[in-house]
Amino acid sequence: MPSKSAIKGRGAQLNVPNRFFELSHEMRDDFLEFCQKEGEIADKNKTQYLEVFPKTIVNKVKSPDVGMAYSMNAYQGCEHGCIYCYARNSHEFWGYSAGLDFERRILIKKDAPKLLEAYLKKKSWKAYPIVMSGNTDCYQPAEKKYRITRQCLEVFLKYKHPIGIITKNSRILEDLDVLKALAKDNLIGVNISITSLSEDTRRILEPRTATIKKRLETVRILSEHGIPVNVMIAPIIPSINSHEILPLAKAASDYGASSIGHTIVRLNGAIGEIFTDWIKKTMPDRAEKVLHQIESCHGGTLNDSRYGARMRGEGKIAEQINNLVRLSRQKYFKGKSMPRLNCNLHESFKNGQLKLF
Fold it and tell me: For residue 238, what are the contacts with CB-CB under 8 A and spacing of at least 6?
């Protein structure tokens, strides 16, 4: 169980220095002692929503092993607080820490629907699936207030453009009407991330995400309405959820998923320090074991940027994990797969209506 001093409802337990800044902010013990004596709260642990104004919204993905060519992110930072999240490093580009700032300073792109519409109407654009979101969850808590993802889905529907969604939040069901309309023309594929069947594990790994029960129910409801779902068993972390691969795959199949995907955890950039601090506070009895097993999957280091190897790992433990996933596919998903999305309709709808000639 997490220590009593853990920051409630957060994954990261500290703010690491931003690698792009010479100066850093430190919460000193004498300041904390002063706050305690004065009866003041040193850290209110509140989430801030900060509006930003990007000039573009669709990103060309250059990494060859992430399974997408284009992505867009309505939000930067993510209140879900998943401790292992690779997107944490991107918060440094905005001037914040990859630690607590990533979970508590959420950047809001209100102009995303307008920017997306302009992009889809470009004469040079040829339809290809765009993924929401390649970086941070498009259905994180901020979506309840801002509904930017909903507005973007309506743009995709208007222009009959294919879209992929990655989320671990059951809030996606609030947009079931739009998703069903997209599915009629084979324009939508959904990826639901489920990393464990244990609520105790979920709470400490992903503190502000939907419960496992709700996520599985989301898979079922989407599948029953003809919306194809891939369950991402990702990341797999040795000695934390690696023993759950077969049960997770069976549950995904039982609830109607068309396929499963997986990655082995890698802790690049600032994430290595954040994760190490977290696991020593949260799972002190197995911290060194987990860290060493992660290192064994990545050539002896927590940081692995090698294309082709970074997602699947190497070595005996990685081999066992990959073999279990392969066995799971053979056992529970034989003859099933995600359909290719329809890229043929968009050209006729670039002006918002079907061309007559």
Answer: 265, 290, 293, 294, 296, 297, 317, 321
Taking residue 94's Cβ as centre, other Cβ atoms within 10 Å add up to 15
φ, ψ dihedrals at 191, nearest 5°: -115, 115
**This prediction's pTM:** 0.91
Q: How far apart are CA 64 and CA 68, in angstroms?
A: 8
Torsional class of 239: left (φ above 0), alpha (ψ -120 to 50), beta (otherwise): left
Q: What distance in Å separates the CA atoms of residue 295 and residue 1, rounded to the nearest whole number?
A: 24
Q: How far apart are CA 34 and CA 53, in angstroms?
A: 39
Beta-strand relationship, 48-51 and 105-108: parallel
pLDDT per residue over 216-266, tens digit each? 999 999 999 999 999 999 999 999 999 999 999 999 999 999 999 999 999
Residue type, 58: V
Question: Does residue 121 contact residue 351 with C-beta atoms inside 8 Å?
Answer: yes
DSSP single-letter state for residue 190: E
- Rounded to an integer, what distance in angstroms lies between the CA atom of residue 184 and that of residue 181? 5
Nearest C-alpha neighbor of 226 from the set 263, 266, 186, 264:
186
Write down the pLDDT at residue 31: 64
- Cα Rg of the chain, angstroms: 21
For the cut 90, the answer to whether the pLDDT of residue 30 exceeds it is no
Q: Which two tokens stand for residue 139?
A: 């259905």
The 3-class SS string of 131-156 reads EECCCCCCCCCHHHHHCHHHHHHHHH
Q: In the structure, what pLDDT confidence band is assigned to residue 6 with cuts at 50, 70 and 90? A: confident
**Strands across the sheet containing 105-108:** 48-51, 105-108, 75-76
- Report whether the peptide linkage leading into residue 235 is cis, meaning its omega lies within 30 degrees of zero: yes
How confident is the model over 297-324, as pLDDT tens digits?
Answer: 999 999 888 888 899 999 999 999 999 9
What is the rounded distance in angstroms from the CA atom of residue 349 to the CA atom of residue 15?
Answer: 46
Structure tokens at 187: 């324009």
Domains of the chain: residue spans and CATH = 39-332 (3.20.20.70)
